[in-house]
User: What shape does this take?
Amino acid sequence: MLRYALRRLLHAIPTLLVLVTIAFFMVRLAPGGPFDTERALSPEVEANLAAKYHLDEPLGAQYLRYLSDLARGDFGPSFQYKDYSVTELIAAGFPVSLTLGALAMLLAVLLGVAAGATAALHRGRTLDRVLMAAAMTGISVPNFVLAPLLVLGFAVLLGWLPAGGWTEQGASALLLPVVALALPQVAYVARLTRGALLEVLSQPWIRTARAKGLTEREVVLHHALKPALLPVVSYLGPALAALVTGSVVVEQIFGIPGLGRYFVQGALNRDYTLVVGVVVFYGAIVIAFNLVVDLAYGWLDPRVRLR
Amino acid sequence: MRAPLLQRLLADRAARRAALTLLVVALAVLVGPALSPHAFDTMDFERIASPPSVAAAHWFGTDSLGRDLFVRTLEGGRISLAVGLTATLVSLVVGVTWGAVAGWYGGRIDALMMRTVDVLYALPFMFFVILLMVFFGRDLTLMFVAIGAVRWLDMARIVRGQTLSLREREFVQAAVALGASDARIVFRHVVPNLLGVVVVYVTLTVPQVILVESFLSFLGLGVQEPATSWGMLVAEGAREMESAWWMLVFPAAFLALTLRALNTLGDGLRDALDPSDAVGEAHPPALARGSLPAEGGGGSVALAASPPSTGRGPAVEQPGGCDRVDAPLIEVHDLSVRYGARAVVAGVSFAVARGTTLGIAGESGSGKSQLLLALTDLGGPAAEVAGRIEWQGATTDAAARRALRGARIGYVFQDPLAALNPYLTVGVQLGEVLARHAGLRGAPARARALELLEQVRVPDPASQLAAYPHQLSGGQRQRVLIAMALAGNPDLLLLDEPTTALDATVQAQVLALLAELQQRLGLTLVIVSHDLGVLAALADRMVVMREGRVVEAGAAAALYAAPRSCYARTLLDAARRLEAGA
Assistant: This one.
């Protein structure tokens, strides 16, 4: 297990490095720089600024400096918000996005597993067909279509829930964004759970469990559910990536002051350092989360754990 | 293979409907705009954001610049579908080439290429696409490349796996022997054989690509005005939805409908390619071979010259008359098992006296395992069981047979590795039987579990309780399985090929253990095997089955000395020849 963990850790390093390298060269290659203003600067000022931001150094040195800055959590200054560093903006937006994402992840797993298991245990019957048709719709309706439709239905037409905002309306403001973010993932997890549970239930050892005289409930809960959840566990990594991507539009639509909204604003305003900072930050989180998920998977599957 | 694939696909109602939907959408997108008197970019400031109206020929209403939404939605569809198809093509070319090259050359090249895929896989690609669009402007070509570059990874993985297995196939080897160049082999022989898998993934990639395009357009990074796409229209609709719901609803409906149809079609294609996991499959996996002819006449061809006294008709062969057993523990009358139209057991009768051993012999597919499953109703919902099964003289229904499981009838399956849950320790799997049938939990359960493992001669039982099945040897696994079957203190033990998965020495040990346990615990055994040697060691009485029917039954000693049916003689001769040869 320890060796497995170390190997996975080693594999994460090149991934992170590729991420950072792409980020570095994207900022460098992007047209325009941090001091492009309407007025042309005098050569002296420009040289001073370049020296200040180390733009006069060779590219290799700049790259190393960028790496060491990143290692210390310094993403550089924001182009657009002159008084803030990208690190400060991330620190402001991330807690909000984390709340939204964690709730959506929780909803996706709980509701998805419940719906998928129910469908599997009613295989071929009406309930199964209804749930799977709903799941098929769920994976086909993207967040950015679902979110405005939910607002139209529950906020504009019915008036039950606020159409946006964050803290001022309390928990009710969370409901629509979390649902809009989670539903496609709920549907995906449900399909995954159903398939995995059916697969597990066809295993010979399930027949052994039945032959032992266990109740069907015991067979499903003690013998089938854990192995059926392993594919769901390994899907959590991609699910997080999907939630991060989805949060970009959901935060935009509901006016939530999270990292995704900063990202869109940054993208539209050509705030290169902010955009790249967010990508590196989220990329590192996704990579780290994948690592944790892989380790959890190895721990859950005794055949991997004890190798 | 293509024709049956299409047939299977068309038999799937959801897939059929999805294909029809796609056809309608494609047709609407192509000819729809011509049906309207309006152009997609003509602004009508008299009718800004006006609701759907037939009179004005604005069937979906107009947008905030007074442009006709019907035409714009269909025009947007053109772009969305075109982007979807083109970018999928990009990902197809990159993915298939990458995967085929990695799979074909294997070794270090493969390792390096797939490691690259792994690294790229872990990156949040959507963000890079957004970065590309931000930094280098909204350019349709760039968008195709960017999206295609995101979506080729799955394709590469699948194609590589398929190529690896194709590489070993005869026709590819033949091409190698003929001296064809690598590129020629890969693209002429390997890639065409990947067609099925690739078609499925193309179908599933198109909706994902459309999704990415819509996502970018929604963020204002995609298609540029006055051109439009579904994602852009949804974004505009979302801004105006409080005053003009139609601006959101129509494009959203088109987008969702198309994506759903594509996903459904892809699902259907995948199921059609891989019929093994189609829903509603009626037969158990164990029945791959040997279904029965509806009439019993088919079995006599190979075996000529049977003595007139024995015949082979079921009426003569039934053990009821000459083969009576006093006060049987279990008695089976005219038992039949069917899976749909397929009969696997047909009119079998036998009885087993307490404390004795019945051996059921027959080749694979003879229905002997299915017979055993039926005794405790383990054949699954698809198995139709007819006939009568008596337990201690009382006729049982399915529920009563299920109630016997574990408590009165212990079951030992073949292939102990597959029969034990790989995710639970031996102790847990043993403990749940004790909890269920003996009411034991905690320390007393542990003590009893240790006792059971000692009884079946598992060495070092205390540490084996904490072990997982894959950590045990084959013989130990079989002993654990026997201990589990004994844990509920059953009267009867059903053993399905209990030694087939074991090597010869371990086989002998397990058989000796079974004989000893039977003596000590007064067990009744029913053993199913294709190996007459195994049965000879234990059985008091024998039943020989073929194609679901009993061809001979009687005392084991008599059967081994003087088999009456041709079939039993053939089996015996075969067994003796094997022994002599070995």
Observations:
- The mean pLDDT of chain B is 78.
- The two ends of chain B are 43 Å apart (CA to CA).
- Chain B touches chain A through 74 residues (CB under 8 Å).
